[in-house]
């Protein structure tokens, strides 16, 4: 393996055969159900593939992630994978990894390094594309409709990559139809509470909301509570589009409270382990691997729900 | 044209922006109430936000994992568990501060850090959704058309006001905060008072946590109550209580909490873009404090004295100002 | 200073007061507790702004922005309560803000040398690098004086500098003051010790209730005239001063509190002491002789390393003040600012604090009862302003002391430990308090009485325990309790007991 | 604790791991130094984390706009100091509690980040990159980053100022008893405002070090870092009430926090929540340890 055995420093008690690969994985944190599912998928897949996993949680801090990667380098793991907290500022530490001959795989979020040799591949969703898919459904759904459509948007955490990209993709797509207008947009911090509180305020200041676009299911679910409290019927009076497709969201979709969900798949584990084995063996891998993702409407949700794991 | 001030009846419950402020402000008001007493003893409690998360996590996990997740009995047990655990956590803080003599900010930082992990451990990192009518009722039901959250918060305020007024607790808390050594020499059981206020603060936070998770019928261990401690401290200070301990004002804290919530709701309502909302919040906080600062008021008074001699108290100008910016 | 008026809200602390201070004189500022002496001084140095009036220094009108400006203009001040930084060393406190420097940085060796020099001038034997907070309030007071004397100022203001000092320190201080006077410094001096005032001052200004009564040359006025000028009427209580209210000790009764071998390492060596009901036991000794330490051990404020205590014949362990209070012991500490006053609470709340604490927070003393207690003791001790709602921190030093006494007297303790209860109290009130102590004793309370004023100790006590260098030296009882005898023991140690 | 780590993980106790502790925490050291000044006067500065973020943002944005890197550094440092000056002036002259003023400062600085740009801004200025990637050899295989040197100098200056200048002694006096300090005729205003200027400047400097570390500006950088700084100072033995404490203690506090992080990253099997719980517990261990030592010191 690429520079592996050099230090020979596998964690104590590894025991099982000298050839077990070690993967250092630095996770963003545990800030959402999506993220937890993502973590679990990675852990399970590593176990199944017989890869030893060094897991480190960065508590949403880039500096912690950099520290973790440095310590992976020191421990001379075979492959490093991480979900960057933020796009910028990875060059230094990635350079160190490169110097130590440890291949790096990005998951979930990209980095904006101009030097693409710093990492082997990027495995993850395309947030802009997710926004586009959400917008596309709305464009189609309202095609041939009469009069303006008032949209409110629940953004993710201000400044976070998914929030920026999902807003961008959505805005760019609905621009096709001049009737579609975002009349209010506010951050709900990706949380149910935030979604509920912001939606409550929207409902009071804008009596004529037709569509809600939420950057994740959780905010959408919170908003549903607010819509119901206001005496309106979610999914009917106000159409709801969200992103993620976690179990609770799918349930709401199946119940008709949400109209459309763009999937953002957290179960990257198996795909990641394949890539790990390949790069460790020195095989060529594509620069970009997009997660297999789909979209759901009510019927699809009903079908998918029983086998939904997260 | 909907008005910021319009209040109507909807499904037997008052409905309107003002009601939202009260309803959404109730958890903050409660957390700030506990914080007021802690601060009065020269302490500070950074763990309230974490306790919020723990109490929601414990209650929801209990309910969701019980064989009968929809029954009121399950909900009650869950609530009881959450409160009991919170009391224990408060006692833990009290132990570190009163017995071991660790500085409050760092003693409660321990729980602030570890507690969120504890909450995630309980929920296994998932958002636990519950479907329990009784539990949903904590925030969803109303008493005489007033949301239950508002009723509960008001009742706790009234109770604390009564207890601190009718018993000697208020005075003794202040004495401990103003001069701990003199209080000790006067025979005040400062240790048990300190324990009491930390336990009370944790209980308040737990109730706030139940409200927050009932509001969305889910427990979010990672985000529930995040940074709530800062808002609570801010509310206490807006209310005129000094962080140096000693004299405190319960009514002031209530006003402070409502001011903060009004500000938040206003930001959502008038459509201030998220990227400038923090700057806006900062400016309002600065303005509120400038208006309240005794120094500034003295200056204003001196200038005004020449013209007329009845300066309006600045504190009452606060809600008026924020309300005025709603349309 | 002419026509000075200062008001704190509704309280008119000073009204149109004049004060003239000449170079090379010691000028005494006299008045009862709360007359406005400290306020006048703080006005002079720019702590409080004046509402009306004018301050001139050498004919030039000035308005100091604060103590720093006053200091720069050559006015050096010792304020009433010790105002130093307990967290810093003695040496630093002496020189803070004017440390010797070399190449822009503080020359610590120079600081130590200079501090030792200044302390030496007042014949103080303390380690300049020890933290100030570890020392008794008396020593802190001396450090504050040393600090003020250290700058070669043109005006030296001393607000009750001698309140916790004993005779030898006072003598030392006066030596310094005389030397300064000779070199042309103007000295403003506040004290409630009439004798000291007559000993040192050249002229005096008398205030009453914030108003000027008059200016007198010390030589032209008798003690009696001075007191009536301060008080505003003839004062019979003065005559009572000479009456010794000593009651014969009832030897038969078991002691309220008995200590055998009570001691604490580094603070005080083992002491045997028994106090019987109705008995006043005085503790006599010099500054730092360990009186306060002993009192704190008796009250459980500090924990004893050795020895046993019995209360009413039963052995007890006093681990906390609370335990002592439950055993019927009360303790009024010497350092009232740090250990007694709860500044931001009202006079009423301060008076009932100890009583309330022992009842627990559940059983609040009814408001009516609180008012009644507060009113009665405000009247009895003549606390001014006679407003139970005033914040204690806003009262003058002497009045604060009275409130603290009231706090303990209303708990009707079996043993009352008073550490310097008359510190900073004016003549009239001092007599009142002495009478009160005597009366408490007559009613059966045991009293331990500490005062820097030996006179007072001797006059009040049935028995005197003399301490020296934190060791008990002797106990005197009955006829032996006599000023000369006590002084001799303090000075020589006697060698009688161990 | 460190020895324990060394026993448990083979490569833990190597010299470079120790140095990495410094490399990874140099910005926190600088922050803690500034915070020590503030806390010594009995104040507190909650804005430091946000000022760090703002500094990274301003630096990145100005570099993107083509400013010269040296000028950018100057602007950032002066900006931080001015920000601190404004807060200090409000605290002292308008007598508003430091907690609140700096909390408003925290909101303001973070808010300004968003106003500058929501997205992260990469830095590819050659000077910044060079500084970021330079390793200063210490002989053997050991090396440190330039940031460590900067932090060391800052600590040295702070020790000098606190112990050898009148300003420093006034800081202690004000913390011990502000009323007394005023009556003693000390320059209280200078000290009370000054510490916030220092803290502001230190935050900006820490922001620059952070920028070298990250080579990016981002509005969500350093969230909650003020708590780390305060914790470091308090673990280092400084009293929050003011008047007592040492800069070197704060440095030790930073190293304690860093060690906790390092232990965690070496224990690579902890789930996210167990990491948090372990951080809390280790924090507790250190705090209690410090408390016991302090008590023994007094007795
Ligand atoms: N900050 C303040 N706020 C309100 N009242 C005050 C304040 N300071 C002093 N006073 C009042 O002013 C009056 C004069 O007080 P001052 O301290 O000058 O008396 P004093 O003559 O020094 O008495 P003492 O001999 O007891 O020290 C008192 O009635 C006191 O209560
Ligand atoms: N922790 C300490 N470290 C150093 N010296 C101390 C400490 N505690 C007390 N002292 C010194 O011990 C001596 C005894 O103090 P104590 O207060 O009992 O004296 P005292 O007889 O009450 O005299 P006075 O109250 O008049 O100063 C004092 O000189 C004091 O400075
Ligand atoms: Mg006075
Ligand atoms: Mg004494």
From TrEMBL, chain B:
<keyword id="KW-1003">Cell membrane</keyword>
<feature type="transmembrane region" description="Helical">
    <location>
        <begin position="278"/>
        <end position="296"/>
    </location>
</feature>
<feature type="transmembrane region" description="Helical">
    <location>
        <begin position="21"/>
        <end position="39"/>
    </location>
</feature>
<feature type="transmembrane region" description="Helical">
    <location>
        <begin position="105"/>
        <end position="122"/>
    </location>
</feature>
<feature type="transmembrane region" description="Helical">
    <location>
        <begin position="224"/>
        <end position="244"/>
    </location>
</feature>
<feature type="compositionally biased region" description="Low complexity">
    <location>
        <begin position="315"/>
        <end position="327"/>
    </location>
</feature>
<keyword id="KW-0812">Transmembrane</keyword>
<feature type="transmembrane region" description="Helical">
    <location>
        <begin position="193"/>
        <end position="212"/>
    </location>
</feature>
<protein>
    <submittedName>
        <fullName>ABC transporter permease</fullName>
    </submittedName>
</protein>
<dbReference type="Pfam" id="PF02653">
    <property type="entry name" value="BPD_transp_2"/>
</dbReference>
<feature type="transmembrane region" description="Helical">
    <location>
        <begin position="134"/>
        <end position="160"/>
    </location>
</feature>
<keyword id="KW-1133">Transmembrane helix</keyword>
<dbReference type="InterPro" id="IPR001851">
    <property type="entry name" value="ABC_transp_permease"/>
</dbReference>
<feature type="transmembrane region" description="Helical">
    <location>
        <begin position="251"/>
        <end position="272"/>
    </location>
</feature>
<feature type="region of interest" description="Disordered">
    <location>
        <begin position="302"/>
        <end position="327"/>
    </location>
</feature>
Automatic annotation (TrEMBL), chain C:
<feature type="domain" description="ABC transporter">
    <location>
        <begin position="252"/>
        <end position="494"/>
    </location>
</feature>
<protein>
    <submittedName>
        <fullName>Sugar ABC transporter ATP-binding protein</fullName>
    </submittedName>
</protein>
<keyword id="KW-0067">ATP-binding</keyword>
<dbReference type="InterPro" id="IPR003593">
    <property type="entry name" value="AAA+_ATPase"/>
</dbReference>
<keyword id="KW-0813">Transport</keyword>
<dbReference type="InterPro" id="IPR027417">
    <property type="entry name" value="P-loop_NTPase"/>
</dbReference>
<dbReference type="InterPro" id="IPR017871">
    <property type="entry name" value="ABC_transporter-like_CS"/>
</dbReference>
<dbReference type="InterPro" id="IPR003439">
    <property type="entry name" value="ABC_transporter-like_ATP-bd"/>
</dbReference>
<keyword id="KW-0677">Repeat</keyword>
<keyword id="KW-0547">Nucleotide-binding</keyword>
<dbReference type="Pfam" id="PF00005">
    <property type="entry name" value="ABC_tran"/>
</dbReference>
<dbReference type="GO" id="GO:0005524">
    <property type="term" value="F:ATP binding"/>
</dbReference>
<feature type="domain" description="ABC transporter">
    <location>
        <begin position="1"/>
        <end position="234"/>
    </location>
</feature>
<dbReference type="InterPro" id="IPR050107">
    <property type="entry name" value="ABC_carbohydrate_import_ATPase"/>
</dbReference>
UniProtKB/TrEMBL annotation, chain D:
<feature type="transmembrane region" description="Helical">
    <location>
        <begin position="142"/>
        <end position="162"/>
    </location>
</feature>
<feature type="transmembrane region" description="Helical">
    <location>
        <begin position="17"/>
        <end position="40"/>
    </location>
</feature>
<keyword id="KW-1133">Transmembrane helix</keyword>
<feature type="transmembrane region" description="Helical">
    <location>
        <begin position="70"/>
        <end position="93"/>
    </location>
</feature>
<feature type="transmembrane region" description="Helical">
    <location>
        <begin position="193"/>
        <end position="215"/>
    </location>
</feature>
<keyword id="KW-0472">Membrane</keyword>
<dbReference type="InterPro" id="IPR001851">
    <property type="entry name" value="ABC_transp_permease"/>
</dbReference>
<keyword id="KW-0812">Transmembrane</keyword>
<keyword id="KW-1003">Cell membrane</keyword>
<feature type="transmembrane region" description="Helical">
    <location>
        <begin position="227"/>
        <end position="253"/>
    </location>
</feature>
<feature type="transmembrane region" description="Helical">
    <location>
        <begin position="46"/>
        <end position="63"/>
    </location>
</feature>
<protein>
    <submittedName>
        <fullName>Sugar ABC transporter permease YjfF</fullName>
    </submittedName>
</protein>
<dbReference type="Pfam" id="PF02653">
    <property type="entry name" value="BPD_transp_2"/>
</dbReference>
<feature type="transmembrane region" description="Helical">
    <location>
        <begin position="273"/>
        <end position="294"/>
    </location>
</feature>
């Amino acid at each position: 393996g690429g520079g592996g055995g050099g230090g020979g420093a596998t964690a104590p008690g590894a025991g099982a055969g000298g050839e077990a690969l070690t993967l250092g994985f630095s996770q963003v944190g545990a800030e959402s159900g999506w993220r937890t599912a993502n973590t679990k998928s990675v852990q399970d897949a590593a176990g199944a593939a017989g890869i030893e996993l060094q897991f480190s949680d960065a508590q949403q801090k880039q500096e912690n992630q950099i520290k973790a990667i440095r310590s992976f380098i020191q421990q001379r793991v075979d492959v490093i994978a991480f979900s960057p907290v933020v796009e910028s500022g990875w060059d230094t530490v990635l350079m160190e990894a490169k110097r130590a001959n440890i291949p790096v795989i990005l998951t979930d979020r990209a980095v904006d390094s101009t030097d693409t040799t710093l990492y082997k591949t990027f495995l993850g969703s395309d947030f802009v594309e997710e926004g586009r898919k959400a917008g596309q459904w709305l464009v189609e759904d309202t095609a041939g409709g009469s009069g303006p459509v008032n949209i409110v948007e629940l953004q993710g955490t201000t400044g976070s990559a998914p929030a920026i990209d999902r807003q961008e993709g959505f805005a760019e797509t609905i621009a096709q139809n001049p009737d579609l207008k975002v009349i209010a947009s506010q951050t709900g911090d990706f949380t149910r509470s935030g979604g509920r509180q912001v939606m409550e305020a929207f409902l009071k200041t804008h009596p004529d909301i037709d569509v809600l676009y939420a950057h994740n299911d959780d905010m959408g679910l919170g908003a549903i509570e607010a819509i119901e409290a206001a005496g309106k019927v979610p999914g009917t009076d106000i159409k709801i589009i969200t992103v993620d497709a976690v179990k609770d969201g799918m349930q709401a979709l199946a119940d008709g409270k949400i109209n459309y969900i763009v999937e953002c798949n957290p179960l990257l584990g198996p795909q990641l382990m394949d890539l790990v084995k390949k790069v460790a063996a020195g095989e060529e891998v594509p620069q970009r691997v997009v997660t297999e993702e789909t979209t759901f409407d009510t019927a699809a949700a009903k079908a998918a729900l029983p086998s939904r794991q997260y | 044209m909907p008005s910021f001030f319009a209040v109507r009846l909807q499904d037997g419950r008052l409905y309107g922006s003002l009601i939202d402020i009260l309803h959404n402000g109730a958890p903050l008001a409660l957390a700030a109430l506990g914080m007021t007493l802690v601060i009065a003893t020269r302490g500070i409690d950074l763990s309230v936000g974490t306790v919020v998360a723990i109490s929601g996590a414990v209650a929801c996990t209990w309910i969701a994992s019980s064989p009968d997740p929809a029954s009121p009995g399950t909900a009650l047990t869950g609530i009881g568990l959450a409160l009991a655990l919170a009391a224990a956590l408060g006692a833990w803080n009290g132990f570190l501060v009163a017995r071991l003599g660790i500085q409050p900010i760092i003693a409660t930082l321990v729980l602030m850090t570890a507690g969120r992990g504890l909450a995630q451990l309980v929920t296994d990192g998932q958002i636990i959704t519950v479907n329990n009518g009784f539990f949903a009722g904590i925030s969803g039901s109303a008493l005489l058309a007033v949301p239950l959250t508002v009723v509960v918060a008001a009742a706790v305020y009234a109770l604390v006001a009564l207890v601190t007024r009718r018993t000697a607790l208020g005075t003794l808390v202040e004495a401990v905060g103003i001069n701990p050594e003199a209080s000790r020499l006067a025979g005040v059981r400062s240790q048990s008072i300190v324990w009491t206020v930390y336990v009370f603060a944790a209980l308040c936070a737990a109730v706030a946590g139940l409200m927050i998770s009932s509001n969305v019928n889910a427990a979010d261990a990672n985000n529930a109550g995040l940074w709530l401690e800062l808002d609570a401290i801010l509310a206490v200070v807006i209310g005129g209580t000094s962080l140096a301990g000693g004299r405190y004002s319960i009514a002031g804290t209530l006003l402070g909490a409502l001011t903060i919530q009004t500000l938040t709701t206003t930001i959502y309502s008038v459509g201030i873009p998220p990227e400038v909302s923090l700057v806006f919040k900062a400016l309002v906080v600065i303005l509120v404090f400038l208006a309240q600062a005794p120094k500034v008021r003295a200056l204003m008074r001196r200038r005004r004295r020449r013209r007329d001699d009845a300066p309006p108290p600045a504190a009452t100008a606060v809600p008026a100002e924020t309300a005025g910016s709603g349309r | 200073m002419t026509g000075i008026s200062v008001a704190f809200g509704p309280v008119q602390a000073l009204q149109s007061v004049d004060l003239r201070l000449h170079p090379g004189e010691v000028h005494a500022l006299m008045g009862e507790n709360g007359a406005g002496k400290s306020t006048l001084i703080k006005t002079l140095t720019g702590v409080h702004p004046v509402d009306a009036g004018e301050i001139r220094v050498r004919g030039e009108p000035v308005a100091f922005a604060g103590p720093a400006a006053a200091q720069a203009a050559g006015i050096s001040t010792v304020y009433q309560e010790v105002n130093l930084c307990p967290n810093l060393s003695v040496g630093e406190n002496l020189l803070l803000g004017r440390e010797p420097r070399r190449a822009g940085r503080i020359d610590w060796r120079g600081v130590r040398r200079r501090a030792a020099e200044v302390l030496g001038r007042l014949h103080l034997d303390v380690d300049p690098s020890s933290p100030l907070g570890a020392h008794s309030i008396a020593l802190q007071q001396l450090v504050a004086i040393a600090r003020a004397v250290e700058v070669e100022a043109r005006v030296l203001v001393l607000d009750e500098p001698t309140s916790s000092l004993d005779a030898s320190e006072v003598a030392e201080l006066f030596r310094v003051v005389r030397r300064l006077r000779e070199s042309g410094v103007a000295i403003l001096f506040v004290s409630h010790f009439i004798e000291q005032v007559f000993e040192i001052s050249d002229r005096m200004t008398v205030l009453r209730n914030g108003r000027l009564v008059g200016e007198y040359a010390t030589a032209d006025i008798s003690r009696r005239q001075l007191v009536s000028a301060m008080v505003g009427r003839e004062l019979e209580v003065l005559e009572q001063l000479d009456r010794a209210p000593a009651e014969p000790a009832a030897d038969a009764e078991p002691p309220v509190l008995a200590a055998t071998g009570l001691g604490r390492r580094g603070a005080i060596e083992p002491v045997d002491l028994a106090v019987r009901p109705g008995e006043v036991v005085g503790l006599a000794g010099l500054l730092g002789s360990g009186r306060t330490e002993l009192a704190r051990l008796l009250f459980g404020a500090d924990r004893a390393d050795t020895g046993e205590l019995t209360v009413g014949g039963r052995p007890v362990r006093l681990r906390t003040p609370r335990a002592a209070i439950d055993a019927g012991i009360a303790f009024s500490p010497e350092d009232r600012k740090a250990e007694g006053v709860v500044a931001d609470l009202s006079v009423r709340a301060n008076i009932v604090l100890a009583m309330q604490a022992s009842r627990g927070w559940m059983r609040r003393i009814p408001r009516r009862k609180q008012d009644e207690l507060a009113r009665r003791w405000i009247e009895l001790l003549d606390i001014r302003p006679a407003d139970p709602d005033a914040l204690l921190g806003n009262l003058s030093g002497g009045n604060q002391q009275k409130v603290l006494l009231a706090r303990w007297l209303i708990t009707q303790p079996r043993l009352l430990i008073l550490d310097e209860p008359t510190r900073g109290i004016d003549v009239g009130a001092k007599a009142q308090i002495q009478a009160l102590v005597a009366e408490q004793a007559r009613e059966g309370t045991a009293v331990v009485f500490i005062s820097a004023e030996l006179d007072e100790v001797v006059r009040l006590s049935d028995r005197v325990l003399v301490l020296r260098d934190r060791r008990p030296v002797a106990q005197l009882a009955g006829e032996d309790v006599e000023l000369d005898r006590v002084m001799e023991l303090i000075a020589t140690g006697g060698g009688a007991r161990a | 604790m460190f020895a324990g780590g060394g026993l448990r993980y083979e490569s833990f106790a190597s010299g470079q791991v120790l140095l990495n502790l410094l490399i990874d925490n140099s910005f926190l050291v600088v922050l803690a130094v500034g915070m020590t000044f503030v806390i010594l006067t009995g104040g507190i500065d909650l804005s430091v984390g946000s000022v760090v973020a703002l500094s990274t943002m301003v630096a990145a944005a100005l570099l993107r706009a083509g400013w010269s890197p040296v000028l950018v550094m100057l602007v950032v440092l002066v900006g931080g100091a001015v920000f601190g000056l404004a807060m200090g002036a409000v605290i002292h002259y308008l007598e508003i509690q430091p907690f609140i003023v700096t909390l408003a400062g925290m909101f303001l600085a973070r808010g300004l980040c968003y106003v500058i740009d929501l997205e992260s801004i990469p830095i590819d200025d050659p000077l910044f990159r060079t500084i970021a990637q330079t390793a200063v050899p210490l002989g053997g295989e050991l090396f440190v980053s330039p940031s460590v040197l900067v932090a060391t100098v800052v600590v040295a200056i702070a020790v000098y100022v606190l112990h050898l200048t009148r300003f420093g002694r006034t800081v202690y006096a004000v913390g011990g008893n502000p009323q007394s300090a005023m009556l003693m005729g000390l320059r209280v205003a200078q000290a009370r405002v000054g510490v916030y200027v220092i803290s502001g400047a230190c935050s900006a400097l820490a922001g620059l070090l952070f920028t070298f570390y990250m080579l990016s500006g981002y509005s969500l950088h350093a969230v909650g870092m003020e708590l780390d700084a305060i914790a470091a100072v308090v673990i280092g033995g400084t009293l929050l009430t003011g008047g007592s404490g040492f800069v070197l203690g704060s440095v030790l506090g930073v190293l304690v926090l860093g060690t906790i992080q390092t232990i965690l990253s070496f224990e690579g099997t902890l789930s996210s929540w167990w990491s948090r719980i372990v951080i809390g517990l280790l924090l507790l261990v250190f705090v209690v340890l410090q408390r016991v030592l302090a008590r023994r010191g007094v007795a």
